[in-house]
């Protein structure tokens, strides 16, 4: 017996990678909302229980000489999971979600929240895999998403991939879907969650 639960019709298996401040209560709450819609959500903690009070503190942790190897930890987190996964990530967690969606066989979809890696050029993980649907979500005034080129990468993705969609939300908040942070936007998060559930229902 492998111990891997058989996939049920209509239910998606999702791995959700947390943002740069860690596996905060708000990330857990988002995972729980998707579980409540009938999907299986795996939310690995790549920081070993650490969370940080600001984006800057989380970034400093990731840049430190003794920083964890996030790629290796993400690979280990999915090693025992089915190949037929939806890969989701929030902000810096998109790096892992998008990398695995593009390089690990069997992806059923990708949900990229508040970040997007270009699919062409030196930073690309390679071509987007055929037949894998993807959504990108972010605020149109977010200094990180809109101001650092991620929204442009998302537009390129949509132009190249038939099953790609970009959803923008009015505002300038980063990590707006994290209910444990000051920048939480309940209205945008409700709409985001509705769209995520509809996507998962479609690929489940």
TrEMBL record:
InterPro entries: AB_hydrolase_fold. It comes from the Bacteria. Gene3D superfamilies: alpha/beta hydrolase (3.40.50.1820). This is Dienelactone hydrolase.
